[in-house]
Amino acid sequence: MFGKQITLFKLFGFEVRIDLSWLVLGFLITWSLAKGIFPGYYKDFPEATYWWMGVAGALGLFGSIVFHELAHSLVAKRFGVTMKGITLFIFGGVAEMEDEPPGPKAEFFMAIAGPLSSVLLGLILHAASSRGENVSMPLYGVLSYLAVINFILAGFNLLPAYPLDGGRVLRSILWKWKKNLRWATHRASQIGSGFGIALIFFGALNVLRGDIIGGIWQVMIGFFLRNAAQSSYQQVLIRKSLEGEKVERFMKKDPVTAPASLSLQELVENYIYTYHYKMYPVVEKGKLLGCITTRQVKEVPREQWQQRTVGESVSGCSPENTVGPGMDALKALSIMSRTGNSRLMVADADQLIGIISLKDIMGFLSVKFDIGED
Ligand SMILES: [Zn+2]
């Protein structure tokens, strides 16, 4: 369910996307507002009114999260950090940065902007709700719920658990202090991880005490925080280590290539079972035609392997499987993780120059981490 995203609209040049998990969450929120929270606070409304309040509450929550992420994005833009867009998923939102902030000051203001904007929105909604009280009680109910939600949003995000906003604020201070992003991220993510473990522990305790739903939520958020802390740290390490490195550096020259006239049967026996690679560039008369992968071979019924040639099944070069030698290695890595292709062809026009593989980049990273060079 994670990873499937729909683009909703553009706001100030930022794409707003939702993860499909949000649709489920949106329904759950509407339902729990209409059936639980609003009837608990306000008696004797017609059933339909509770449902309208539920829908308005869920939409308002959605808007509040977008507002919060937009604040991050706008401040980031001021500091010259490119933002990929805003994605809402089950635990809230993320404003995705293309790169790390340029310095501790930028990080500090980018991080604090979110919670500050939520507090501000909370105060406005609170003021509006006291006016709404005279107009209609359901309106008052929705507005005061949203005011509280925005304060909670600010409070939760201010937890000093990296990569939450509070953790980013903490990282910016550590970064400023030691002038070392890697060290600051390491410390901040350890604290974030610690928060995650504590939440898992207390969540489990609550489940044992009988608060099953609340406890499960805490455990889930705990796991989420722990994962996020660890993977954000790894991301920083990888980014720092691959900074400025080009594909050329990791590329293997003279890779094994398959001629187009080869039958699939021969490909399987003489290439796949011999070299154990999942992808082979297909070269004909010195020209790169594309590549053939084990995935494509599997799609052809086994009886046809004798007759079908590699040339008939080849898939052409595309940005999904081919990169240039001057491309940033980090970008090649992100293509690998997005497409699941662990080997990419390195080509210049229709000439194959080499192959870059995930294994080679990882090998480089592991020795670099071992030496501990900054
Ligand atoms: Zn935030």
Q: Could you name the key traits of this structure?
A:
alpha+beta; 4-stranded mixed sheet; binds zinc ion; 15% strand; 374 residues; CBS-domain; 2 domains
Strand order of the largest sheet: 1-2-3-4
> What is the count of β-strands?
10
The topology string of helices and strands comes to: EEHHEEHHHHHHEHEEHHEHEEH
Number of helices: 13
Question: Which structural class fits the helix and strand makeup?
Answer: alpha+beta
Give the proportion of residues in helices: 55-70%
Distance between the termini: 37 Å
Ligand species: zinc ion
Global geometry:
elongated
Our estimate of the beta-strand percent is 5-15%
Number of domains: 2
- Summarize the biggest pleated sheet: 4 strands, mixed
Radius of gyration using CA atoms only = 26 Å
Mean pLDDT: 85
Poorly predicted runs of 5 or more residues: none
Describe this entry's structure for a reader.
This protein has 374 residues and is an alpha+beta fold. It has 2 domains: 238 residues, no CATH class; 125 residues, CBS-domain (Roll), CATH 3.10.580. The strands form 3 sheets. A 4-stranded mixed beta sheet has the order 1-2-3-4. A 4-stranded mixed beta sheet has the order 5-10-9-8. It has a two-stranded antiparallel ribbon with strand order 6-7. It is elongated and about 80 Å long. The mean pLDDT is 85. The structure holds zinc ion. Zinc ion binds next to helix 2.
